Amino acid sequence: MHNYSKIIKNLKSEEIDQEYERIRSQSKNRSYSTKNSNYESTKTSSFQENISLKNQLYILQEQLNNEKQRTNQLEIVIKKLKSSLLQQDKDLLSKCEEKIQIIIEKDQLIKQLQEQMKSLQTENDHLQTTLSEFQDLELTINQLTSSYNSIAPNMLDQQSILEQCLDYLNSLTKLINPILYGSQPQLQDLFKTKQKFKPRKKFQITELCENNMKHIQDIEKQLVHILDLIDQKFINELAQYIK
Question: Per the record, which residues fall in region Disordered (predicted)?
Answer without folding.
Answer: 22-45
